[in-house]
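To assess whether ligand presence alters the predicted conformation, the chain was also submitted together with adenosine-5'-diphosphate. Input:
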Amino acid sequence: MILLVSLFCKNKLSQFLSKFDSSCNEILYYHNHMLILGIETSCDETAVALYDTDKGLLAHVLNSQISLHAPYGGVVPEIASRDHLRCLLPLIKKVLSEANIKKPDVIAYTAGPGLVGALMVGSAVANGLALTWNCEVIPIHHMEGHLLAPMLENEKPTYPFLALLVSGGHSLLVDVKAVGNYKILGTTLDDAIGEAFDKVAKLLDLGYPGGPEISRLAEKGIDDSYNFPRPMLKKPGFDFSFSGLKTAVMLAVKDLKKQGKLEKEKANIAASFQKAAVDSLIGRTLKAAREKNLKRVIVSGGVGANKMLRKNLKKCFEGEVYYPRLEFCTDNAAMIAIAAAHRLNDKIKPSQIEAKARWPMEQINYQMRSKNG
Ligand code: ADP
Ligand code: MG
């Protein structure tokens, strides 16, 4: 599969590159000003953004694969890779033409963690374009992208801060001292929170992805109708666990189905599940902020778009809370470009295709690659 993706990509790339102005081949090096092309292909969104270190975000586009994966109730890796391949180059072209830019100074791409085939498409295209444009590349950690996404906003957090990163694949509490100085305080022992939203949505026969669907339905329900567990709240440390909560919902749904009452109770189940999940996230976050004496919290990742989480955390936390705007909570390329803007010292010449399915965040600085520039 990997070989196929590379070959396919190489083909498409050369067709695409022939349309570009090949006279732009001087080596550009700016100390202060950089135009960064960001590429995100780690899962089921193909996204491209152009970030100017002086002017800010110039353009960003995204193609969601949700409709392709929805019939399967989750992401199918092979379908994801093929669709990234289909969409990525046209999206890059679109962003450059929207911003009236011929080529960027540096290309940032998501190098991991994620689906390896999907990552390879972004990495191959980034490295291929960088060779042609004679510019450098910055491989970015997807979760660092989420972590730095609030820096795209006017109101930015200052360091140090606590990051609650909650997405389809991760639930992390990170003590952030500075860019690259990350200490993971807590993670999930089983399902990620976004995954729990998606699985509960499936139990209730709602669409995929489940988070927004549960959230919408929850507005029509009463959130203390069912007393679902708030996992880990009384345990030491800062880890999360959501499989017990998911099982409790599953048992309640089974019971209601038997009694023929499920349809009538769906909104109450969604509301009670959402409340329990949000309480768990907020409980652990407040504990970490208190024990680590952190006065600022950022929330990012797809579940960071959850209205109840945003509202309740702001209400419960005495310090400052920062979020990226809603469209930059879920996967996007603007966060990859802004992360690169904070990591310009890590630019390297394009070399190999870099794609890491697993990549612990605390090891970003040590594991990335040897510099060859
Ligand atoms: P990943 O990077 O793991 O693909 P994203 O950062 O794109 O994840 O986030 C996708 C996840 O966020 C999905 O699990 C989705 O259900 C969840 N999600 C999106 N919007 C909401 C919401 N409003 N409430 C709760 N979960 C949400
Ligand atoms: Mg993500």
